[in-house]
Amino acid sequence: MSAVIASRYPAEYESIAPSLPGQNLPLLQQLRRDALQAFSAKGFPSPREEEWRYTNVSGIEKKLFSVPTSQVASDVPADFLKAYQLPDAWSVVLVNGRFSAELSTLSGLPDGVSILSLADALATQTDLVQSHLGQAVSLSEHSFVAFNTAWFSDGLFV
């Protein structure tokens, strides 16, 4: 594991943690701490791991990643998106990992289906989100999952 992972990521995390969604939720705070600890212990995967033997991601360690501080959905031209939209279909658009309702096409969703940002879901449907978040994949076995769990600033809740 590189020195960047061992020292800089935990220090960077402490500086941005207060701005991450759900920081008022003890369960989510603990999940993030566990994820950061798992990532710090294991680092990014290497070709020595069976699942990554043909994929060298060592170049990722050369850059310190940080959470984007703002969402600028207006930087994505609507005409650009039209080329990728299917007629008479719903579309969900995320810009830099953040749900953009204004760029998405969600009218007429079936009853009982809601789509919102993960940050909004944490604020409005806390128990439901917490019952599923961090349950599908082991943090200690999958470095990228641990990294993303510790650092996520938003996402999609369906």
Characterise the protein shown here.
The protein has 158 residues and is mainly alpha-helical. The chain has one domain. It has 6 helices and 4 strands; from the N terminus they run αααβββαααβ. Strand 1 and strand 2 form a beta hairpin.
Summarize this structure briefly.
The chain has 158 residues and is mainly α. The chain is built from six helices and four strands. Strand 1 and strand 2 form a beta hairpin.
Counted by DSSP, the helix tally is 6
Number of domains: 1
- The assigned structural class equals mainly alpha
Q: Can you count the beta strands?
A: 4
Contiguous low-pLDDT stretches (5 residues minimum) are: none
| Rounded mean pLDDT score | 86
Q: Write down the Rg.
A: 18 Å
The coarse overall form would be globular
Largest sheet: 2 strands, antiparallel
Proportion of beta-strand residues: 5-15%
Distance, first to last CA: 36 Å
Write the layout of secondary structure elements.
Blueprint: H1 3-16, H2 26-42, H3 78-82, E1 94-95, E2 98-99, E3 116-117, H4 118-124, H5 126-132, H6 143-151, E4 156-157
Antiparallel strand pairs: 1-2, 3-4
Comma- or semicolon-separated keywords:
158 residues; mainly alpha; two-stranded antiparallel sheet; 4 strands
